[in-house]
Amino acid sequence: MTSALPPPEPRNQVDDPSSPVARFGADEPLMLDAGVPLAPWQIAYQTYGTLNAERSNAILVCHALTGDQHVANPNPVTGKPGWWTTMVGPSKPLDTDRFFVICANVIGGCMGTTGPASTDPRTGQPYALDFPVITIRDMVRAQAALIDRLGIESLFCVVGGSMGGMQVLQWAASYPERVFAALPIATAARHSAQNIAFHEVGRQAVMADPDWRGGRYLVEGTRPAKGLAVARMGAHITYLSEMALHRKFGRNYQDRSAPTFSFDADFQIESYLRYQGLSFVERFDANSYLYVTRAMDYFDLAAEHGGSLARAFKGSATRFCVISFSSDWLFPTADSRAIVHALNAAAASVAFVEVESDKGHDAFLLDEPEMFAAARGFIDAAARARGLS
Amino acid sequence: MTSALPPPEPRNQVDDPSSPVARFGADEPLMLDAGVPLAPWQIAYQTYGTLNAERSNAILVCHALTGDQHVANPNPVTGKPGWWTTMVGPSKPLDTDRFFVICANVIGGCMGTTGPASTDPRTGQPYALDFPVITIRDMVRAQAALIDRLGIESLFCVVGGSMGGMQVLQWAASYPERVFAALPIATAARHSAQNIAFHEVGRQAVMADPDWRGGRYLVEGTRPAKGLAVARMGAHITYLSEMALHRKFGRNYQDRSAPTFSFDADFQIESYLRYQGLSFVERFDANSYLYVTRAMDYFDLAAEHGGSLARAFKGSATRFCVISFSSDWLFPTADSRAIVHALNAAAASVAFVEVESDKGHDAFLLDEPEMFAAARGFIDAAARARGLS
């Protein structure tokens, strides 16, 4: 009659990221906003296309909360296509025949970059909660070190949606001279109270799972799969619009036309959410989920600049294109407008497109021709301005 | 550094509801939509004011998901004031100097009415998941039996918000001749896919708690407090508007002005949600939470009438007043408009008020003068029409 979620097989991509890895030794610490150095550390990344002789055609793609570096190649864990093959590839808006596209797993992640599942050199065991709390700016610092390592002085463009968009904004604020063009999508310059609230519920779901073991599940041989699945289910609702849920599932029953009067997944939406929870825990580390959600919560770009978002972009020569989606209630268009207003106040170059879509926040990952057209137009114009063929 | 939620003391109000109780024996079963009889059964209720000689001044208040019968007296479990003292009392819109106000704990609840924590006569142990799945219509059937027991043929008015509003609509559809006036607030004639989704996440959080024990926690002496607290935290977000969260909490830190770089409740919104979760588990039964959310999920009044909501109200002489709140995204105004359209199509008498409020779904429980004025005007006019002084 009931159906609790079974635990999946554990995965650990830290030692086998199936990607190139840039390693930084004890003498090259990553200085974190928390005030502590991280060393040694590493960052796993993928590249697509060819860096030109002038090293002027590099695009950095920043991934979202549960994304990774496998933006346009099959994911080694799930076997599924890369998460943004609609945007990145030959003849796509981020055209790998013209541009050198880089995507790196974020600091705190679990796909090869140093995170809470990595080995703490002081103990020889996984960091777990001894890993320092990281921020969006720390993620960007790590990416900048990677870009240095790759010998790239200035990025042609930084692109990303959701948490990826936060990184785009942070790049533009922290390293304006290294960002020719910036394309933040479905994002905000600060995480809202409601979004912090949803994240907190997800973290509490993970921490309430006794198999979380105070974060030490890797050492103790357990896995907080049920808690993480519940967290993912709740988060997933926020990625879709009410309209998208209604259209996809409505009140349709699963495999029958009447209720079973039970707690089985009677409705299709229930079955869908359970599947989302179960498949997520097979590919994501629970502690990484805590750390990366926390980084988003702490994000408030204006706070770094005396409360003025415009000051974050003052004097910037970067050209911006801001894209939002009309049915996105997690990062609503008002958040994007606030970015645009700040850029206007900073006299920066900015275009703004609100894409009409009923698909909610997830629209940035989906087939949205208006987004593709806006991105393509912006990228092509920026490429001409930079003298790229 | 971390803070999982501690389990509270268990409570069981089934045997001590601190209320009058109407008991129905083995020969008076409650026939349920699931197709099974429930017997024996009981329903706990409170009354306020005096029934007049004509028995024509009775108002039934229907409570929401986690409400109870203690609408206008101190709650015996929490010691807090009744949950709707703004609406019910002397000189209040539901004026207990003029009307006889009744409120009963719903079937499946945990404040004295038969529910999953009640003793199963077949086993002598709590029903747990052997309790039949109940529906909104079952709740209303039980209330009708109580009204019979109280010797009331026809209710002057049935009133309720959220799940209480669903019961109001069900009353008007099932017993039109027994409902003179109906006041559904912040509700819908069917539960949306998004709302089913949020409920399912809450149920999975409860069921993922190993202390839930397949529902047998009362027998086994455990309590799925952590899972239930997570469920409540998630649900609570949906009761508030993004604007209300922003105004009340924003990104304010708890007791300090800077982040702690930890997983403590750094933000005020986190501390608030944790408190909501903890205080809830002290007063509510986890299995009741499963059953009552399930009843809401199954609610689809049109489905009982061949898919036509208008048909549910055809020929009704009941006068309706439908109230919604502009910032309620759980039961948005569009849901109330659908009710009004159906009532119009059924040629029923209906008034509609959308109250401007930024407080979200919870507004119906709060100080909303426009709601009070609308309710008072509607009740007073209906009382005149019924010849009540």
UniProtKB/TrEMBL annotation, chains A, B:
One function term, GO molecular function aspect? homoserine O-acetyltransferase activity
Query: Which GO CC terms are listed, alphabetically?
Result: cytoplasm
Quick one: where's region Disordered?
A: 1-20
Q: Which gene encodes it?
A: metXA
Database matches in Pfam families: Abhydrolase_1 (PF00561)
So, what pathway does this thing act in? Amino-acid biosynthesis; L-methionine biosynthesis via de novo pathway; O-acetyl-L-homoserine from L-homoserine: step 1/1
Q: What does the record give as EC number?
A: 2.3.1.31
Its recorded reaction(s) are: L-homoserine + acetyl-CoA = O-acetyl-L-homoserine + CoA
- Grouped into one coarse class, the protein's main location is cytoplasm
Q: Where is the composition biased (Pro residues)?
A: 1-10
Residues the record marks as active site: 162, 328, 361
> For this chain's UniProt record, which GO biological process terms are given?
homoserine metabolic process; methionine biosynthetic process
Question: What function is annotated for this protein?
Answer: Transfers an acetyl group from acetyl-CoA to L-homoserine, forming acetyl-L-homoserine.
Q: Which residues form the AB hydrolase-1 domain?
A: 57-366
Q: Which domain of life is it from?
A: Bacteria
UniProt subunit comment: Homodimer.
- Please list the residues that bind substrate: 232, 362
Family as reported in the entry's similarity comment: Belongs to the AB hydrolase superfamily. MetX family.
Q: Which organism is it from?
A: Microvirga thermotolerans
InterPro entries reported for this sequence = AB_hydrolase_1 (IPR000073), AB_hydrolase_fold (IPR029058), HAT_MetX-like (IPR008220)
SUPFAM superfamilies membership? alpha/beta-Hydrolases
Task: Please report the name of this protein according to its UniProt entry.
Answer: Homoserine O-acetyltransferase
Quote the subcellular location field of this record: Cytoplasm
Q: Any idea which UniProt keywords this protein has?
A: Acyltransferase, Amino-acid biosynthesis, Cytoplasm, Methionine biosynthesis, Transferase
